[in-house]
């Protein structure tokens, strides 16, 4: 049986590559997810996840994370956790509990500390400078405080046919203290059923959660649709419905993987993702909205990658 993984954004690539290596060596899908997302959480230049993630309106880094086992439907999640190095590991640990498997705020942080998870200040000097700069721009240029909400979400399939999904994010930049989006909410930001497949979301959580889109994608795959068909059918009609009935729709990007290792993507913005399987190594691709409710997918160019690396490491004035 094949092994496969898919993850949101360029930032997923290195972790996903390592996760695929584990899967190809016979590893479990849940271990691959945890390993891959921890690598994203630990990298300080990814400003929307973990260490180096951008803070809330008060300058504090509050993180959300979730894990789901597609065999058992076990779910663990944290929201608003602070000063814990790897929220994905806490979320996965919580998935072992029937009760109290979703913890928020001080309760989530206390649980992590009591269970031996590493405590670490997650606000880097770089992220603090970006926050300070944004505060000035809000006051002097009348800009919206909200800019950036990129969740890392990954779905994995192992050689035994087990599937898992995980998410991690520092959430909406400059968010109100206590705010959470879709990333920790089962069915909204993630969902997984090993007999069908899994899905994960990134984008504006307040709008993604209005559609339960990850559950819907998995449900559609269960009717026989391919992951790509399911993503297209779930995402694009809902975006239009939301515009019509709510008046607007934020940024949406969804990924999916089925039990055979096939993947799909749908998005209403320019969206990068990484994917690979046991036969093909991980690669980074670009998805954009296509014609008539479809998705256009192209490989990333070396020039794009070089510009990306330069941008995320550029000095903060």
TrEMBL record:
Superkingdom of the organism of origin: Bacteria
One Pfam family named in its UniProt record: Asparaginase_2
InterPro entries documented for this protein: Ntn_hydrolases_N, Peptidase_T2
Protein name: N(4)-(Beta-N-acetylglucosaminyl)-L-asparaginase
Species per Swiss-Prot/TrEMBL record: Lactiplantibacillus nangangensis
């Amino acid at each position: 049986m094949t092994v496969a993984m898919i993850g949101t954004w360029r930032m997923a690539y290195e972790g996903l590559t390592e996760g695929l290596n584990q899967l190809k060596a016979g590893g479990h899908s849940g271990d691959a997810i945890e390993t891959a997302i921890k690598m994203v959480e630990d990298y300080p230049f990814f400003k929307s996840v973990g260490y180096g993630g951008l803070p809330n309106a008060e300058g504090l880094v509050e993180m959300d994370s979730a894990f789901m086992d597609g065999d058992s439907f076990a779910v663990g999640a944290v929201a608003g956790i602070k000063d814990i190095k790897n929220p994905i590991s806490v979320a996965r640990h919580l998935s072992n509990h029937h009760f109290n498997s979703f913890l928020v705020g001080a309760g989530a942080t206390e649980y992590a500390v009591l269970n031996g998870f590493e405590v670490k200040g997650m606000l880097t000097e770089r992220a603090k400078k970006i926050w300070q700069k944004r505060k000035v721009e809000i006051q002097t240029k009348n800009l919206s405080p909200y800019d950036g909400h990129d969740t890392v979400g990954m779905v994995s399939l192992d050689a035994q046919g087990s599937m898992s999904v995980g998410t991690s994010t520092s959430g909406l930049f400059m968010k109100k203290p206590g705010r959470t989006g879709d990333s920790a909410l089962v069915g909204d930001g993630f969902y997984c059923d090993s007999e069908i497949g899994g899905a994960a979301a990134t984008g504006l959580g307040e709008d993604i959660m209005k559609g339960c889109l990850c559950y819907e994608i998995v449900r559609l795959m269960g009717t026989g649709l391919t992951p790509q068909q399911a993503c297209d059918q779930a995402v694009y009609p809902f975006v239009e419905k939301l515009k019509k009935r709510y008046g607007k729709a934020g940024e949406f990007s969804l990924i999916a993987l089925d039990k055979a290792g096939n993947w799909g993507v749908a998005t209403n913005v320019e969206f990068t993702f990484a994917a690979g399987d046991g036969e093909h190594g991980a690669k980074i691709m670009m998805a954009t909205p296509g014609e008539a409710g479809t998705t256009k997918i192209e490989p990333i160019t070396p020039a794009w990658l070089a510009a990306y690396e330069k941008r995320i490491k550029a000095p903060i004035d």
